[in-house]
Amino acid sequence: MSAQPTDRNAFLAELSAADYELFRPHLMSFTLSVGERLQDVGSLVEQVVFPHGGLAALTMPLRNGGGGGAIVVGRDGFVGGFAAAATAPAMCDAEVYIGGRAARMSASAFRYVLDQSPLVRRLASRYNAALMVQAHQTALCNAAHAVEARIARWLLEVLDRSGGFEVPLTQSTLAHMLGVQRTTVNLAAGRLEEAGVINCRRGYMQIVRREQLERHACECYRNVKAYVSRLFALPPAVTTAVPAGEVVIRKPA
Q1: Does residue 238 belong to any structural domain of this protein?
Q2: Which domain holds residue 213?
Q3: Of 15, 59, 133, 237, which residue is most buried, by most CB within 10 angstroms?
Q4: If the chain, 253 residues long, is cut into consecutive pieces of 10 residues, what is the mean pLDDT of each piece?
Q5: Please, are residues 174 and 210 in contact by the beta-carbon 8 Å criterion?
Q6: Position 243 in a domain
Q7: What does the pLDDT read at residue 3?
Q8: How far apart are CA 236 and CA 239, in angstroms?
């Protein structure tokens, strides 16, 4: 049985009723505001955020004020859980790029809930694995693929998390996410617009032909999507009580 249907966040929605009850007393609803900082690299992580809507980008900063290497998190996951579970400093910045509803809990409460339920720990580990594969693929993508293909990939990533056919991101914001100059994004987005794939509007981009956008995207989009599909198709591990002093060796399936 899943959590309450009003919880649009995928992680919270996937919890059993019993496990959701472990979270419920600690969750506080709030609104994600564009530009809001959820964490700063190297700082202590004090909260874990579960977006129901909106979008946050995880980036690494540079001394000149730039940055890049973005990973996007929306209602498909959570922000801060990896560091909170390890009582570790934040590994990257996290900033809200698209506003929306969310829930949050303290890092200490998150650790407490993980300690109470092996199933919650496994589920959280899978979501962290999905985040890590996105980070690895992004590192490869930034080194190997042209900006036009990367733009197409990120627009698809945002669409998958926000729904609809309009992406409320400016070209300047997209340039920051990709770690490139705005003029580079302008040229690449212009080519996509000339091909009839997108329409660039003030403050947002409209996706005209998603199937064509997927053709322009690099293989990284499909690779991450395929991995995450396989990851969450796996059945939950079964824990069997073992008497003290006995060792159980399971044959591979």
Answers
A1: no
A2: 146-217
A3: 15
A4: 58 95 97 96 96 93 75 95 95 94 97 97 95 94 94 94 84 88 94 95 92 96 96 68 44 44
A5: no
A6: no
A7: 40
A8: 9
